[in-house]
Amino acid sequence: MRTHSPAPAVRFARLHFPHQLALVLFLVLLLAVMLGCSRPPQPKTEASTGPSQKTLLAASDKPSGGDAALADQVKSALPPDAAAPGEKLEVDANGGVVILKGRVASDEVKKRVQDIAQNVPGVKWVQNKLSVAPGSG
Q1: pLDDT in tens, 95-131
Q2: Which residue, 11, 30, 68, 104, is most buried by CB atoms nearer than 10 A?
Q3: Could you tell me which residues come within 8 angstroms of residue 12 by beta carbon, excluding any fewer than 6 positions away?
């Protein structure tokens, strides 16, 4: 006579407590890793190296020379017709993260500007805050 294997819920219930605990901890750890990896990289600030809050505030008032140079590199890489007519694009950088702001003529231009910025050496991540001008795309 052949016995059938129990349903999955019954099999889990038959596990001993240490095995159940290990399985639950493994699943929680797996979930934490998956959630942690789903976020885009955050810009590095002096806060991660531990200066005082006063130093951090002073540093955040103006971008570093490297950030300003990176923003200038991205601006010069963008085509002159990227912005919607009568609009201007803003490019900021912080720790290798480039922030694009302004209005563009279409979704295609928005994507193209992001791709151009992403391919500039030194850019780690692009935060695209561009919007499409109404009635132009």
Answers
A1: 999 999 999 888 999 999 999 999 999 999 999 999 9
A2: 104
A3: 20, 23
Is residue 104 within 8 Å of 130, Cβ to Cβ? yes
Residue 71's identity, in one-letter code, is A
Below-70 pLDDT ranges, the chain: 1-15, 37-64, 136-137
What DSSP state is assigned to residue 78?
A: S
Please give the sequence-ordered ranges of beta strands (E in DSSP) within 1-137, or none if there are none. 90-94, 97-104, 125-132
Write the class of the CATH domain 63-132.
alpha beta
Q: Closest by alpha carbon to 96, among 71, 129, 128? A: 71
3-state DSSP call for residue 43?
Answer: coil
pLDDT at 127: 93
The token pair at 111 is: 């994507």
Q: Residue 74: its pLDDT value, please?
A: 92
CB 16 within 8 A of CB 8: no
Per domain, the residue ranges of the chain are 8-37, 63-132
